[in-house]
Design a protein that fits this description.
This protein has two domains: 6-142 and 247-379, no CATH class; 154-235, no CATH class. The protein has 16 helices and twelve strands. The two termini are 43 Å apart. The chain is of the alpha/beta class. The strands form three sheets. It has a six-stranded mixed sheet. Strands 1-2-9-10 form a four-stranded mixed sheet. Strand 9 (283-286) and strand 10 form a beta hairpin. This is DUF3800 domain-containing protein.
Length: 382
């Protein structure tokens, strides 16, 4: 557990110094140029408010990843007013509309390939590409995020370092995906993640491991089985003291992580009252300086509006990746129309150039399998 550097109260305001956490982010993830001054604009999608279990399953589609992201610029280097006016003219559906929404360019497209065939989407991506804009985003696979506490409760999972820990999480996630209905019922029965009978919970998982890996051929599953077996009479520390069946109470931590990752930057979020209330519970300070962020109504910021378009495109792009294997993606990419291919090349270049500027512009909590799909897309020669 990373300790915060200092918590103090000044004139009734709680000030939290996150300097040590920022240093840890820098050291652990090697994020470059964290102190550079950017202007970051945000919108979000797939916000379930709370992600929890019901008697039937989840209260929200677990395949719909939460996504926070938008546009990034070097401070003071925004696109020209003339360029923005030209874009708005192309994208606006009605002359009297007060703002641009993703639905205006989506035009009822249900899938990513259908989306990038729409003229307004093609015009928007081309504008981003021509203006050398940067895209930043953070995503969370809610189900993956919910089950990794099982791994992190086992001290043996850290013996092989960060990468092995991730590998074990992805192995468990992959196994669960193949037997999801059974595992969800297990979670419901034990009021996961607030397990009361840890011995019985571990016993059920051990029997499941025996069923899916009877000969012990899969090293990672066998490693997890032996590790859990050694904890048969222990408490899984991250699976107690929680609220029954509530995996994610809110997404404020993703907002906070974005603010801390670029602590010298200006952060402008679309208005989200519950998140703002959580963040405003204390003043965020790094290296003795208060970090700048604000929440605004989207109709007051063209760049927040454009971030809504970006996040909508990213959501459908992730939907494509999530629902297909790499083999399927290869077939899909081989059969693009000329128009789709031109737009997807610009979109790929936009994403690639953003990571060239700062690969801290991408942050995700998801399985290795999903990250492999992102990498496959980024490296594909269209």
């Amino acid at each position: 557990m990373i300790e915060l550097n200092e918590i103090r109260i000044w004139e009734g305001v709680i000030i939290v110094d996150y300097t040590e956490l920022v240093k840890a982010i820098s050291e652990l993830h090697n994020v470059p140029k964290m102190d550079k001054e950017y202007e970051l604009y945000y919108d979000e999608t797939n916000n379930s408010r709370i992600f929890r279990l019901t008697d039937e399953g989840f209260n929200f589609n677990e395949k719909a990843y939460f996504l926070l992201g938008g546009l990034a610029f070097e401070k003071g280097k925004l696109p020209s007013k003339e360029s923005l006016e030209s874009l708005v003219e192309k994208l606006r559906v009605q002359q009297n509309s007060t703002e641009i929404k993703f639905k205006h360019i989506q035009q009822k497209a249900k899938f990513f390939l259908e989306l990038i065939s729409k003229k307004r989407v093609r015009d928007f991506i081309e504008w981003l590409y021509d203006n050398k804009c940067w895209v930043h985003y953070s995503y969370r696979d809610n189900f993956y995020y919910s089950i990794v506490d099982i791994i992190d409760s086992l001290e043996e999972s850290s013996f092989g370092g960060f990468e092995f820990n991730r590998e074990l999480k992805s192995t468990l996630y992959d196994c669960i995906a193949k037997d999801k209905d059974w595992f969800i019922q297990l979670m419901i029965y034990f009021d996961y993640p607030n397990v009361k009978d840890h011995n019985q919970f571990i016993g059920e998982i051990l029997k499941w491991f025996d069923r899916i890996n009877p000969d012990g051929y899969d090293f990672n599953i066998e490693y997890l089985r032996q590790s859990m077996k050694s904890h048969r009479k222990d408490i899984l520390i991250f699976l107690e003291g929680n609220t029954d069946r509530v995996m994610i109470e809110n997404y404020a931590d993703i907002y906070r992580n974005s603010i801390l990752t670029f602590y010298n930057s200006v952060h402008v979020f679309d208005e989200e009252l519950e998140i703002q209330k959580k963040l405003d519970e204390n003043t965020i300070e790094v290296f003795g300086k208060e970090v700048s962020y604000e929440f605004v109504k989207s109709d007051n910021s063209i760049f927040v509006q454009l971030s809504d378009l970006i996040v909508g495109i990213l959501r459908m792009w992730m939907g494509l990746l999530e629902s297909h294997s790499i083999f399927d993606l290869k077939e899909i990419f081989l059969n693009l129309t000329a128009t789709q291919k031109q737009t997807i090349i610009q979109f790929q270049s936009l994403m690639y150039n953003s990571l060239l500027e700062n690969w801290g512009f991408k942050h995700g909590s998801g399985s290795d399998q999903f990250e492999e799909k992102i990498n496959y897309f980024m490296e594909y020669n269209f």
